[in-house]
Write a structure and sequence with these properties.
Shape of chain A: globular
CATH architecture of chain A: 3-Layer(aba) Sandwich
Distance between the termini of chain A: 39 Å
GO molecular function, one term (chains A, B): S-adenosylmethionine-dependent methyltransferase activity
Largest interface: A-B, 28 and 28 residues
Oligomer: homodimer
Number of domains of chain A: 1
CATH class of chain A: Alpha Beta
Strand content of chain A: 15-25%
InterPro entries (chains A, B): MeTrfase_7, MeTrfase_capping, SAM-dependent_MTases_sf
Structural class of chain A: alpha/beta
Keywords (chains A, B): Magnesium, Metal-binding, Methyltransferase, Transferase
Protein name (chains A, B): S-adenosylmethionine-dependent methyltransferase
Pfam family, one (chains A, B): Methyltransf_7
Strand order of the largest sheet of chain A: 3-2-1-4-5-7-6
Number of strands of chain A: 7
Helix content of chain A: 40-55%
Largest sheet of chain A: 7 strands, mixed
CATH superfamily of chain A: Vaccinia Virus protein VP39
Chain lengths: 332, 332
Amino acid sequence: RGAVAAAKEFISKAIEEKLDTEILLSSKTFRIADLGCAVGPNSFFSAENIIEAVQLKYKSQGLNSQTLEFQVFFNDITANDFNKLFRSLPSNRQYYAAGVPGSFYGRLFPNASINLFHSAFAIPWMSQVPKTVMDRNGPAWNKGRIFYSDASDEVVSAYEAQNAEDMERFLHARAQEIVSGGLMVFFIPGRPDGTPHSHTLPNLIYQILGSCLMDLARKGVVDEEKVNSFNIPNYLMSSKELENAVEQNGCFSIERRENLDHFFAHDTVYKSPQLLASQIRASLEGLFKQQFGDEILDELFELYGKKLEEQQSMVESGKAVVFLLVLRRLAN
Amino acid sequence: RGAVAAAKEFISKAIEEKLDTEILLSSKTFRIADLGCAVGPNSFFSAENIIEAVQLKYKSQGLNSQTLEFQVFFNDITANDFNKLFRSLPSNRQYYAAGVPGSFYGRLFPNASINLFHSAFAIPWMSQVPKTVMDRNGPAWNKGRIFYSDASDEVVSAYEAQNAEDMERFLHARAQEIVSGGLMVFFIPGRPDGTPHSHTLPNLIYQILGSCLMDLARKGVVDEEKVNSFNIPNYLMSSKELENAVEQNGCFSIERRENLDHFFAHDTVYKSPQLLASQIRASLEGLFKQQFGDEILDELFELYGKKLEEQQSMVESGKAVVFLLVLRRLAN
């Protein structure tokens, strides 16, 4: 079972089994928001899957789905290329599309205006690098590294705390924006229970990239101070952390949870170091350009491809999980 | 009285006098859409003016405006630079912002989902160049010209017909998208009663640009066939045409109409040929690039600046008007 098919099936079942009929009846417009949409096309597939499932549910209740309209809000940070997103919107889409720029750690939508939130692979991106990790004189200064998973306990704690704070803000904002009874369907790459941060697959990938930067610093190509003050704002939660966040917030029930263990195993990108290097480059290029400039990127990612190849068995030994989660907004 | 102040006053009065209290009470979210927003900042000023006026109205009814939220949809064609728009959104805005790509001659929003539509200076842009004007063997082939106002009767008729069709589609779409009783506030540059197309100020400006292109064609810099097959899809309605369109549609009452005669007269840009040339270049560059390529633009707009200077007294004799219009959605 491929990851795409698994995701589609999860969405369909979640809506079939968990979406309240009252929500379908409460408005003629069903509003969906995808958080962290990037430039498509995955976001478009998700929107289509959701709409198909809602229409099926609508029909199964004996309702006339012709009268139901959909509006999909595509959200990402303001720096996202919304022009590209808009130009690639499917022309035969069955929904009204809108783009919403801004961090999903703050409010994006009016009160009780969204029927269903969706987010795939975006939630690990934190609102910011923890401030203490940026404090050169503090105990969490992350010298010689660009990530938390292979760093000191202080750095790990700072990332943990930032994640907890972010999740609180994330859920607090969504709790206001979603209608009572509304669903949130999330795909969240996480850390498998019992696996240390440093043995988790996506983390390994970032650690190796950090070691490449330090190699370039030793060669004098990159200013070491720039490496010291650079950190990737991404954190993989354990299932316990995720549950705690939902519990702390108190506005949502966990309606369904699945662990997709084999998601990354099926992803052939992890078996091709060159492909992986170019994919990571695509996703991080903006961040790296800001800190290190354009010039070093080619050399950095060439070295990265080589190191990934050398350390391929370590990469493949990394453990990974994707949490598939359905939350429902409790009545106030 | 400057044009900006006049626009603000018109919006404030329209909302104060014409916005039904039921609309304010019907939802906790007041949704505004600006059609043809470009990249701001005028669109942001309009949104702020509208919100300020709605809040005042809300308070004047003894309601607590703290509970009212605003969502503003910024619409323009998909080719618009939404990235620029999003990056320049005021950080202290009092509304949730969304971008909506697509032609306002089709549907953009769910049924009855918008409380107030606004559009400033965008409605003269047609959905397309009339097809008959593009037919090289037909009677409306616009040889040697790029605009209708100085062209044959057949070309003028084709533009008139396209405008009538566009207005029908425009009003039909809005009639479905707006709530019953909702307002539409439009600023529409038009043709003053009794003024021929060719003596209307914005038209004069385009006619002179067309003559520059023909000069370049005669010099062999531009392929004349490219001039023949190029037309600017912009049409200025008379007040009668505007009234007819609203009447034909039948879903809206005209609640208020003002003619701002001095709008262009106050605009110093028309007194500075160089400034005018560069402003027209900014607004048409995309269109011209597509048809004629990058290379001719500098030469074209340098010549344009010169011609505008030579013909400045003619430009200044041009007649202009902006229709300020408030429409209200009638109950079904």
